[in-house]
Design brief:
The complex is a heterodimer of chains A (294) and B (176).
Chain A lengths: L7 H8 L4 H5 L18 E2 L5 E2 L16 E11 L4 E11 L3 E11 L3 H4 L7 E14 L11 E11 L2 H6 L2 E3 L1 E13 L4 E10 L9 E3 L6 E11 L4 E8 L12 E8 L5 E9 L10 E10 L1
Antiparallel strand pairs in A: 1-2, 3-4, 3-16, 4-5, 5-6, 6-7, 7-9, 8-11, 9-10, 10-12, 12-13, 13-14, 14-15, 15-16
Chain B lengths: L1 H11 L9 H4 L35 H5 L2 H18 L4 H5 L3 H15 L11 H5 L6 H18 L3 H11 L3 H4 L3
Helix pairs in contact in B: 4-6, 4-8
InterPro entries (chain B): Globin-like_sf, Globin/Proto, Hemoglobin_trunc
Protein name (chain B): Group 1 truncated hemoglobin
Organism (chain B): Qipengyuania spongiae
Chain lengths: 294, 176
């Protein structure tokens, strides 16, 4: 039988040149694959968007380059005087737009009694996020052109009366941020910088702004991570915060390790230093997170 | 009854001549593989190392990480084998002259890794024209290349350094 383009006379001669795999399998079925590279969906932040844990990145949640990507996460931060718990979901489409939701619960444990709120008083808020990838690519394209995304996060405190009593001007607020993130393959380093306009007190858990500081301020988030293998990365982050309430609110930092035991699961463990929270100093502890993404 | 009536017609029907050369009937030009290289002919083009799409590394440390030309040859052959067996992207390679692909890909890797080769293939835009590759396809290929490099014992940091030379080519490779 004549294959297309190969005449019978030289078929015997060329057969020897053809690797057996090609000769045996003339055509393979095609599937519409559009998956991302491992870890390039980032680690869900405490605000529910794709990032590095405490800093938002320009990356988008989920493992899809073209279709619908979905992720869900649960986070626990164990501090000396408080316990932070958050969980949420995020969806992205075409690696272009991300929508996210997270619920944060901040348990004051014994500190609640000392603050006059009652033992185990829990601050909670809902965070609704949207992020749009403007340009660039995390991995490909120009080595010096990062992926750049614009995001908004609308936060609603569920403790209106208490945050007002603490001096917050508002119980809800909206952050706007722009992130630039690039995987510098030549150095195996992921670098991120984020500028954020916000008036959130302790991320919004203690409300937004105050009588003395009612306006938006510009804050910075920076991340550096080193990729040891396809599945494992170590990194550090810093995030500056306003001190609208005059409680001596500090910037946050963390050292994190992210590991992807399977293509769908990312486990993150970090040492987090959240500084002074509600006059309780040196809130340093463990940040633990599980994230599944498709 | 209708079926019975059809039987004589089926018997009378002439069987197609098995010896018809349909390629000739439809004017399909036969492409003849080179008797020495085993490659199919390609349209003429200017040969230049610039077609490799990246400047080579300085020094010989990257070539050493890949165990020289024999190691690069193993990585390329393994990469092509993995791609042909990978249901995600096999279809892109199925209609391809893999004899030529193995040679030109080896030359490209060897040139970029500064292991003592010249690249004689076409540039990245011309060689990927019409393949319809998407970013997901590129990701699948990167994973296969990582697997091939891993099997050769190339350290992960060196794998990424090599990928940093290939990643900027995405604009010429990805079409959709």
């Amino acid at each position: 039988m004549n294959g297309p383009g190969v005449s019978a006379s030289d078929e015997a001669a060329t057969e020897a040149f053809l690797p057996p795999d090609q000769a045996a399998e003339p055509f393979a079925p095609s599937i519409d694959y559009s998956g991302k590279l491992l870890l390039t969906n980032g680690v869900t932040t405490i605000e529910g968007t794709s990032g590095g844990g405490i800093a938002s990145w320009a990356t988008l949640a989920g493992m899809e380059e073209r279709g619908l990507g979905i992720s869900a996460h649960a986070t626990l931060v164990l501090l000396p005087d408080f316990t932070w718990q958050s969980h949420g979901v995020a969806a992205s489409f075409g690696n272009r737009i991300e929508l996210s939701y997270a619920r944060q619960n901040f348990d004051t444990n014994d500190a609640g009694a000392a603050l006059g709120l009652g033992e185990g008083y829990t601050f909670s808020q809902d965070v609704f996020g949207a992020k749009f990838r403007l340009l660039g690519d995390l991995v490909y394209g120009e080595p010096l052109l990062p992926q750049i995304s614009l995001g908004v996060q609308h936060k609603r405190s569920r403790n209106d009366a208490v945050v007002a009593a603490l001096g917050a001007a508002e119980a809800e607020g909206t952050d706007v941020y722009v992130s630039a993130t690039k995987l510098l393959l030549s150095r195996s380093i992921l670098a991120n910088g984020t500028l954020r306009l916000t008036k959130a007190n302790q991320n919004g858990l203690l409300g937004f702004g105050s009588a003395a500081h009612p306006d938006y301020g510009l804050q910075f988030e920076g991340s550096l991570a080193y990729q040891f293998s396809r599945r494992f990365a170590l990194g550090a982050e810093y995030r500056s915060k306003p001190d609208n309430l005059g409680l001596g609110e500090d910037g946050w930092m963390d050292l994190f390790a992210a590991y992807a035991p399977t293509d769908f699961l990312t486990l993150t463990a970090a040492y987090a230093d959240l500084g002074s929270i509600a006059t309780f100093e040196e809130q340093r502890g463990a940040f633990l997170q599980a994230q599944i993404a498709f | 009854m209708l079926l019975l009536a059809a039987i004589p017609l089926l018997v009378l029907q002439q069987a197609p001549d098995p010896d018809v050369d349909w390629d000739a009937e439809f004017g399909v030009e036969a492409e003849i593989r080179d008797s020495i290289t085993g490659e199919l002919p390609v349209e003429p083009y200017d040969r230049s190392n610039a077609n490799a799409g990246a400047a080579p590394f300085a020094g010989d440390s990257m070539a050493a990480h890949f165990n020289g030309q024999p190691g690069i040859r193993r990585v390329v052959d393994r990469l092509v084998d993995l791609n042909l067996a990978d249901p995600r992207i096999a279809a892109i390679f199925a209609g391809h002259d893999t004899v030529r692909l193995r040679r030109t890909l080896f030359e490209q890797f060897c040139y970029i890794l500064n292991a003592g080769c010249d690249y004689t293939g076409r540039d990245m835009r011309a060689s990927h024209d019409g393949l319809g590759s998407r970013k997901g396809d590129m990701n699948a290929l990167v994973e296969n290349l990582q697997a091939a490099m891993g099997e050769e014992g190339v350290p992960f940091a060196a794998q990424n350094r090599f990928l940093s030379k290939l990643a900027p080519m995405s604009g010429d490779v990805i079409e959709r």
